[in-house]
Specification:
Alpha-Beta Plaits; about 30% strand; four-stranded antiparallel sheet; 2 domains; Rossmann fold; alpha/beta; about 300 residues
Length: about 300
């Protein structure tokens, strides 16, 4: 992963007076699954479209697979795959016809095209659906067909924009197994998501908010560096307790209820977080309190919030 598939420096994209991407820089190593995590409207999709050359940046420098973007966007398109959030294939065409159409776009010969279609249908479990029109397929089946079409040309770099937003957890898990297979074979993948568990699967992760990049790095490192300790509290009256805790913003970053527990993020300046809580809130002396492992959701809460109204 020493070579870079994507190098972007100080990217800005404005639409009139609105700044969709605000001075983003990123380096994506080859063979890496690089995730963009953030809420809808934070700039993830705009960033992907800018990196592919579909949109022209207002300022900044972009190099993708050695091509200058947007200058070399037409050459780059032969080397990449792109799967949009909304199903964008042809409803009136069958599985095989959709794959065939994609292969034709990339100039495959009839023999190569038929062989590649067969390989993709086998890889993505579409053999029995060969003649099924896309209109009648389930969400998970459409997702597999979209990925099969996006990888018809064996792309060096695959862009996936919210690819699992309309499928169930089992299909999401299977989809990610396919992504790891592709990564193992050397494909670089850039994927946007708003699912915390998906973000934790990425080799490297950027957290976006309001067009800005709030954090960037391997998920484990981000969790280790976020500057808070997490205490889970099991006690009666959690809603009242949460309100009391949030009156100490210098010590407590956030508090959120998870079932019968309250998950409290306490700044690391508090050396003994459980002891501090027991001293500050005597009613917690008999409560069950434990130090918990950080999650990507904790990281997200720790680094975002500045741009909110």
């Amino acid at each position: 992963m020493s070579e870079l598939a994507i190098r972007a420096e100080h990217i800005v994209k404005r639409f009139g007076e609105f700044t969709a991407i605000d001075d983003i820089s990123l380096n994506v190593p080859k063979g890496c699954i690089y995730g963009f995590l953030g809420p809808n409207g934070c700039g993830k999709s705009t960033t992907i479209r800018t990196l592919t050359g579909l949109l022209h940046s207002t300022s900044g420098e972009i190099e993708v697979l050695g091509y200058k973007i947007p200058r070399d966007a037409d050459q780059l398109r032969l080397k990449i795959g792109y799967m949009t959030q909304k199903f964008s294939l042809y409803d009136d065409l069958s599985v095989y016809e959709n794959l065939q159409f994609m292969g034709t776009i990339f100039g495959m010969s009839p023999k190569t095209l038929d062989q590649r279609c067969a390989e993709q249908m086998s890889t993505y479990g579409l053999d029995r659906l060969r003649n099924q029109r896309a209109r009648g397929m389930s969400g998970g089946q459409k997702q597999r067909l979209s990925l099969a079409c996006a990888t018809m040309n064996r792309p060096e770099l695959l862009f996936l924009d919210e690819p699992t937003s309309a499928v169930d957890p089992e299909n999401r898990r299977d989809f990610w197994e396919k992504l790891f297979d592709l990564s193992e074979m050397g494909t670089t993948i850039l994927v946007t998501t708003h699912y915390m568990d998906e973000a934790e699967r990425c080799h490297r992760l950027a957290i976006m908010e309001s067009g800005k990049m709030r954090a960037d790095g391997p998920p484990d490192e981000l969790m280790a560096q976020m500057g808070v300790n997490i205490v889970e509290v099991k006690a009666p009256g959690l809603r009242t307790l949460k309100a009391k805790l949030l009156q100490y913003p210098q010590q407590i970053r956030s508090a959120a209820q998870l079932g019968v527990r309250l998950r409290v993020l306490i700044y690391q300046q508090i050396e003994d977080p459980i002891g501090w809580m027991q001293q500050t809130f005597p009613e917690l002396n008999k409560a069950e309190m434990t130090i918990a492992r950080p999650t990507i959701e904790d990281v997200f809460v720790s680094v975002t919030g500045e741009g909110r109204q």
